[in-house]
Specification:
This protein has 182 residues and is mainly α. The chain has 2 domains: 56 residues, no CATH class; 75 residues. Helices cover 52% and strands 2% of the residues. The chain has 6 helices and 2 strands. A two-stranded antiparallel ribbon has the order 1-2. The longest helix is centred in the middle third of the chain and has 61 residues. It is elongated. The termini are far apart. The relative contact order is 0.06.
Length: 182
């Protein structure tokens, strides 16, 4: 960025301050001059803020155009960077969504396949289950294929807990001596 320097007269025109005010600020140390006796634009902006009117010399008009163009190009660069960042984040989110949808579909197929395996052989599977693809894994062989009797059923009784006697309340150290037993 171009650094521009102003004489006291140019600064008074650009910032609409009297030369006396600028000289007083230089004397008080609020403003500072460079070695060449000119005042830097950043110093003037720090003390007086942005220039109000454009009754200034051609230097400040040129500087303002440069500053505006630099600011615009910086804003454009920042916005382009943000757009590219957002695009990459959107791509990552789309990939995550696709992966999760595939996982959900896989789990759904596993649940449906498990339902097909659990249907008894004498019942017909419904039409939706018959359209399912089969699992390429081999099914475990039944231990009871050759026998004529049914497989023994597991005992499905739920044990009932025995009643427990209530333990006596604990007593404090002093109550053992001063209260009756009971």
């Amino acid at each position: 960025m171009n650094t521009t320097k102003f004489s006291v007269m140019d600064a008074s025109k650009a910032f609409k301050k009297s030369r006396t005010t600028i000289y007083e600020d230089l004397k008080n140390g609020e403003l500072s001059r460079d070695n060449d006796g000119l005042i830097d634009l950043s110093e003037l902006i720090r003390v007086y803020g942005n220039p109000i009117g454009v009754h200034s010399s051609t230097r400040t008009g040129h500087v303002q155009k440069d500053v505006q163009m630099n600011v615009q190009s910086e804003i454009e660069n920042v916005l382009k960077d943000q757009i590219s960042l957002l695009k990459s984040q959107l791509d990552l989110a789309n990939q995550r969504e696709k992966s999760l949808m595939q996982h959900i579909e896989d789990l759904t197929h596993r649940i449906e396949f498990k339902g097909v395996l659990e249907t008894p052989k004498n019942e017909k599977p419904n039409q939706y289950e018959s359209n399912m693809t089969t699992d390429p894994r081999s099914e475990p062989e039944s231990k009871y294929e050759g026998s004529t009797t049914e497989a023994p059923k597991e005992n499905k009784r739920i044990p009932v807990p025995e009643p427990v006697e209530e333990t006596p309340k604990k007593r404090g150290f002093l109550s053992r001596f001063f209260l009756p037993n009971g």
